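User: Now give one protein:

AI:
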Amino acid sequence: MRRYSGFAVLLVIIVGNLAVWWLMNRPQTDLPWHGEIKSISFSPYRKEDSGLIPGHEPPPDSIMRDLALVAPVVQSIRLYNAKPMTQAIPAMAAKFNLRVTAGVWLAGALSDPNLRLDKPRNQMSPDEAKAYQLQMDALMANEEEINAGIDMARNNTNIDRLIVGNETILTGQTTVPQLVRYIRRVKAKVHQPVSTAEPASVWLSHPELVREVDFIALHVLPYWEGIPAEDSVDFVIGQYDAVQRIYPDKHVMLAEVGWPSAGKGRQQAEPSVINQAMFLRRFLNTATEQGIDYNVIEAFDQPWKEAYEWKVGTHWGVWDADRHPKFSMIEPVEEIKQWRLQAGGATILALIPVMWFLYNWRHLHTRGKIFFAVLLQFAASLVIWTMSTPVIRDFAPSTKLMYSVLVPAQIILLVVILIAGYELTELTWARQKRRDFTPETAPQPTRFPKVSLHLPCYNEPPDMLKLTLDSLVALDYPNFEVLVLDNNTRDPEVWKPVQEYCAELGERFKFYHLGKWPGAKAGALNFGLTQTDPDAEVVGVIDSDYQVSTDWLKVLVPYFENPKVGWVQAPQDHREWQHDLFKECINWEYAGFFDIGMVARNEENAIIQHGTMTLIRRKALEETGQWAEWTICEDAELGLRLLENGYESVYLSHRFGHGLTPDNFTAYKKQRFRWAYGACQILKGHWRSLIPFKNTGLTSGQKYHFITGWLPWFADAFYVLFTVLSVGWTLGLIFAPRAFDFPLAIFVMPTVGVFVAKLIHHLFLYSTRVKCNWRQRIGSAIAGMGLTYSIGRAMWQGVFTKTIPFLRTPKCEDKAAWTAGFMMARDETILMLSQWFCAAGILYDKGTNDLDARMWALVLSVQSIPYMAALVTAMISALPTEGFMKRLEAKAKAKEARKAAKAAPPLAPTEAQ
């Protein structure tokens, strides 16, 4: 049965993927439209043409082809200017029996009311002279337009009305008196009705303008008002009725009405082919039923309009820029005609990794195979959709920015999700572990090779060290020595008591005080190798705060009878955290790595070596180069080096020792900063060994775990970078909206998705793999999130610098004061507040009805959570919580007692008596 389960899963994934693509792109139906369009805006510019650059107009034969294309389905066309090219269009339109609404384009004349035209030029300032010249040029251009428009109306009998100016009052290019003068001049010289085109707000505010025109040319474009597509026709009719009701004696023409097919959304208005088709079908049916005079904007998409109307301004055409109809007025409409290619591409992209996964993971239950295969297919589909849909629908930023920054960032986020999914799948649905080491299954000792235990310390409290030494004295193992390596501790009052105590413990315990010793911890450990008993076969390392169990060596040393084993690792664990909320949180955050991450890595013989509770084959350590003094994470570097040289590791998740947690948030951050910075150093030193498909001594599984194990830390680095950039981008959106647009939702929402996915991954695996309660799971999640900034900063510093001083993690220190607790998360608090202020600022500036603004504010708010977690963790570390923790424990005990009482069988009558 298992033989065919992989094939069945593959078939389900392929069919399911295609079904989802079909559901997302299934055709939409609505009222059909069978008639002709009464009038349509006609701009004959093609892709290579421009209405802004002189000499880039389309040739007459191109215009004739466009007229021939629209003539069968429209009765009239609207023109907007009287340029030489446009003046020839009415005569061409007459050949197709098309009526024409002519236009006169007015430039911004006298836009500065304080500028006096009668002021002598030699008395003007440079700015005044420049403004004067611009306005004189506008006046001359307007004169030419008016005269050309008059001539065009007189010479073409198919022109049945004239519109002078297009939204010039709305845009402030003219004043009402100026516009009235232009209208009167034109009316005096033509016989056709004359008007100007403005939105309802202008017509309702200026009855004096209404009195001057022969009809009202009303623009109603619900997209620009942020109206949702389903309400757009009602909005148009409402605007039309409002104007007609106020001016019942004036004929009202809807001179511009339409909907864009692509581009960025605006508040609740979403451009799309389906929305455009549905809007036009509904509107045309409604307008015909009510006898409304109208003009649809527009015939063809106009790419040149992007310069002043953004990309959405280029997509109002019923035909696209290549003169293909975007949709049928009768048949169901598809949003993306290329969706079949997208679905096929997503299927092919996921096919090879899904097949490889199903072939190599036959040890998984079917549910696990389905889960991860679906995750792979989802990632592939999202990549294809992200790379293609913004381009197809033309709401992407520049192609260069999209494919060089946004898509790679998206892929990194998806890889982080896949890494988490891989780990979750392996640990949840494996039929059995492939490399399972436990004390119960450990080999029985046949001999007792000598073990040299090295205990490096620097400026550690003597009483703490004595407790560690006491636990070593009690080891149930006959053949070991202990080397205490005190390096760079200056105060004799700190190191001499330890020296004296070692002397009391006997010849097994040797103490070495190293004054100004180079190489930090690695340097001390290398010195220890020179002092190690020649008979020692195994070297052990423990931190100075650890108290080990008596069976540590007895259980673990026999694994070295296998000559392939290079080191045996037990987890770091902690003690004395039970009455401190901060220490409880970070204790369980540490536990997650050793009960989840290390267990998963152990399946591929790819664990991270840690510099405590570790036992190393001495021969392997010395042959491969001893401890590396060039990195501040000499333990992890050694583990990778041993794997490169063909050695195996053994990891038992059983706890054989317990140390102390960092005392405050600063110490906690410093420790993780050191680990992350050290990871960068190791990657720089060993990147060649991690190259895929190359024989470097590492297996593909080991390469995978070392790369993906540190990749989330690089994701934290980019998270911090994006946080900083988002502040600058938000300021640009507020203060320079023409230069900055909202990032695409499909690129910013994965930030939220990754946050949610990581949280679910954390809580689910903690519930199944880590023996802690719900409060401790949440506390560990908050503590882990609070390290985002420190890890991100360490990764950036690690990329661009070579080394930093070794950062000691202090233990047994006093709690920080409340104000000091706040200062421990100062940087994170600043970043948190920056995100909050930006979210509030964008909502205040753009309004809460703006969908893009709400989306961006949501992303900023989510981005602030790790920084808020840092502040919360810092404050918890500073505030006294012992009483609070004891009350929680008392409540928990009382709850357990009540449960036990309910579960107990009732007493017999004689017993009760």
